[in-house]
Write a structure and sequence with these properties.
Shape of chain A: globular
Oligomer: heterodimer
CATH architecture of the largest domain in chain A: 3-Layer(aba) Sandwich
Radius of gyration of chain A: 19 Å
Order of helices and strands of chain B: HHHHHHHHHHH
Helix content of chain B: 55-70%
Structural class of chain B: mainly alpha
Number of domains of chain A: 2
Structural class of chain A: alpha/beta
Number of helices of chain A: 16
CATH class of the largest domain in chain A: Alpha Beta
Number of helices of chain B: 11
Largest interface: A-B, 71 and 71 residues
Number of strands of chain A: 8
Chain lengths: ~290, ~200
């Protein structure tokens, strides 16, 4: 058994990506990974907060690190944005002790203190490196042979680093996909941006980026895309019809969380996987593996 | 002229005082950042230009432009910069300085969106997506009334958003009620204190 503190993040716990949270928890359980949810965690502030108040953004993130310090375990999150924001607070406080003091001065106003001892991890890192590809392979009940999957990393799981994989040419997601018996298709743009939260304020810009990604995945023969981030999933899935309308394209690519795909291979119960939460239905490509 | 240069220099000092902002002094103007940026063609002044303008003290013009607000935080420039400038952090530092001095752009609603997001987090401790979108669109409406009244009128119909809202709801992805944390009062006190302490260093 491996033990971690768990930070689900807003989207995965109660928002648009609940199925990422529930599938993460189910897959972790199957792999003997105990995720202990951080008590009373708050939103990490995400990218928007860093553009409003710099010190405030670090403090909002650091409160969670302070809470995690009470148990002392690595803090794991399935969200790439939470991952980078929490790790960023850690890094800035480490690089500048003076800044760390200032963050702690603010934290003290809420009865918290952070000593800088927590390591922030992404769930992909934990599953690929702590659990390992062989252990994943050993849990596979339904081999996903023949399924062509585009591995989409997005930005913040690999950058700015130094992280657990290469910032522009990572391999861990491909290896997870292969461990399930599926085929990871070539996907040159797999660490390019989906537009992130700018889909809300600058939709035209984001739609252009999404189109490029869908085109790159489809033209390399992918039947579906897997992501490691709730924002990426939302942009590629929810906005796919909008891309089709705007650019007169006919993309029809289901976008799954990588933990959902793992769950399908592990034979995890449907309720935890939430496969029906995708706007682009995944049944068409998964039917041959999910049939009882 | 003198006052402008001086205020430019003060703003530059403020940017340098932000975590990650100090990297601006290391830039050699090679342009790798702009060449790597997925949204470069949308910026009034590119990443490289923005850094040059900031160092030349031309900050009021820069901070009133749409530059920075098109930064996607994809960190591609940051991992490629040969001088370790961390342009992504520099852009966020510029955003915060612009926000602090009330310098705003009419050419992007990203600042309105960021502020709405941060306010939601401040109020509840967690982000309720529906509440955030409602607050953002409400504020965007007033932003458009000031900057582009015609599109504000178009927005009232909300027709463009309806299919996605219905789609999300029918797939169980639109929570109607937001969660609140127990330590909300403490979090508010932390944020308030951080705002009082101001700046970063």
């Amino acid at each position: 058994m491996k033990y971690y503190s768990y930070y689900p993040g807003c989207s995965n716990s109660d928002g648009g990506a609940k199925s990422y949270g529930s599938s993460t928890e189910a897959v972790a359980k199957a792999l003997d990974v105990e995720l202990h949810e951080l008590e009373d965690w708050n939103c990490c502030g995400s990218t928007p907060f860093t553009g409003v108040n710099e010190l405030g953004s670090l403090c909002v993130a650091a409160r969670n690190l302070a809470l995690a310090e009470k148990r002392g375990l690595d803090l794991v999150t399935p969200c790439s944005s939470c991952y980078i924001i929490l790790a960023r607070a850690n890094l800035h406080m480490k690089e500048s002790p003076k800044l760390g003091e200032k963050v702690n001065e603010a934290l003290a106003a809420g009865g918290q203190k952070y000593n800088g001892t927590i390591k922030v991890r992404h769930i992909l890192d934990v599953l690929a490196n702590d659990v390992g590809y062989d252990a994943i392979k050993a849990k596979v009940k339904r081999d996903l042979a023949g399924l062509k999957v585009a591995p989409y990393y997005g930005c913040q799981v690999v950058r700015p680093g130094p992280g657990f994989d290469h910032p522009e040419n990572p391999q861990s997601l491909e290896r997870v996909i292969q461990s399930l018996g599926a085929e990871a298709t070539p996907f040159p743009l797999r660490t390019r941006c989906c537009g992130g939260s700018l889909i809300v304020s600058e939709e035209d810009l984001a739609l252009e980026l999404i189109r490029k990604l869908l085109d790159n995945a489809a033209s390399n023969g992918a039947e579906c895309i897997v992501t490691v981030c709730p924002m990426c999933q939302t942009n590629l899935d929810v906005y796919q019809s909008r891309v089709n309308r705007k650019f007169k394209t006919k993309f029809n690519l289901p976008v799954l969380f990588f933990t959902q795909l793992m769950g399908v291979a592990f034979g995890t119960e449907d309720k935890a996987l939430g496969l029906r939460s995708g706007i682009i239905p995944a049944d068409r490509v998964l039917a041959r593996y999910t049939r009882k | 002229m003198d006052t402008k240069v001086q205020s430019g220099n003060t703003l530059l000092e403020e940017i340098c005082a932000m975590p990650g902002g100090e990297g601006i002094r290391l830039c050699i103007q090679c342009g790798t950042c702009t060449g790597s940026c997925p949204s470069a063609d949308k910026w009034d002044f590119s990443v490289r230009q923005a850094i040059a303008m900031a160092r030349a003290g031309n900050l009021e013009e820069l901070l009133s432009s749409n530059s920075m607000w098109f930064c996607l935080s994809c960190y591609l420039c940051t991992v490629r910069c040969p001088r370790d400038v961390k342009p992504t952090e520099v852009m966020h530092a510029m955003e915060c300085v612009a926000a602090r001095h009330g310098l705003s752009t009419k050419r992007s609603s990203t600042p309105v969106m960021y502020k709405a997001f941060a306010d939601c987090v401040k109020n509840n401790g967690r982000l309720h997506e529906l509440g955030f979108m409602a607050l953002f669109y409400q504020r965007k409406f007033f932003f458009l009334l000031r900057t582009n009244p015609l599109s504000a009128l178009k927005m009232v119909t909300l027709v463009g958003m309806a299919p996605r809202g219905i789609g999300l709801f029918s797939h169980g992805r639109l929570g109607l009620r937001g969660a609140k944390i127990k330590g909300n009062k403490e979090l508010k006190a932390i944020i308030k204190k951080a705002e009082e302490l101001g700046g970063a260093l």
